[in-house]
Design a protein that fits this description.
Elements lengths: L1 H20 L15 E6 L3 E3 L2 E3 L2 E10 L3 E6 L4 E6 L3 E10 L2 H28 L13 H26 L3 E6 L5
Antiparallel strand pairs: 1-4, 1-7, 2-3, 4-5, 5-6, 7-8
Helix pairs in contact: 2-3
Length: 180
């Protein structure tokens, strides 16, 4: 009897804590830290302290996010913009720069795909040819195409990797545009 009451009491306390904390589950407390670099997309023209904020996107530093509005210091012109939450279409927080290695791998992948596609067309064209067309009689047309296709694919893969290395892109994490 005493054990049943203890289990019931613990269950009741656990259920109460679960119900009280349920709204907090799934929320991230660090989504809008003050001082974070943010990118704001405004859905229609709005006025902020006598200054027109046109439709579009701008980047700045988060100064304050309250129940009514979002306060962002715009980076380029160093002016504070206060935007009502109703006008914020999209809000993103800066999440760092993509690594150069990842960008190089992605570029190499696209270079390989392009080289393989051109090489496939080259090999299919050569397979349909019946005459050798070269002075080397011991190599078939498919063999000649293969001698060109493999280095071509390697070169386009390398070019893609170099292009991928040249640019690191900023990463942005989307945040639900609502008042905290």
């Amino acid at each position: 009897m005493c054990i049943r009451r203890a289990v019931s009491a613990v269950s009741a306390v656990g259920a109460a804590l679960t119900l009280l904390c349920a709204p907090l589950l799934g929320q991230r407390t660090d989504e809008l830290p003050v001082g974070a670099r943010v990118r704001v997309t405004v859905d229609r023209d709005t006025w902020s302290r006598g200054i027109l904020v046109p439709v579009g996107q701008f980047t700045g530093t988060l100064v304050l996010a309250n129940a009514d509005s979002l306060h962002v210091n715009q980076s380029r012109v160093n002016e504070l913009k206060v935007i009502d939450w109703a006008h914020v279409k999209r809000l993103e927080v800066y999440d760092g720069t993509a690594s150069r290695g990842r960008s190089a791998r992605r570029g190499a992948k696209y270079g390989f795909i392009a080289g393989a596609a051109v090489s496939t067309v080259l090999l299919l064209t050569a397979a349909n040819r019946s005459d050798s067309g070269s002075d080397i009689s011991w190599i078939s047309p498919s063999g000649e195409a293969l001698l060109i296709a493999v280095p071509l694919t390697l070169v386009t893969t390398g070019i893609g990797a170099i292009i991928g290395l040249s640019g690191g892109r900023d990463r942005w994490r989307a945040v639900t545009p609502r008042a905290p």
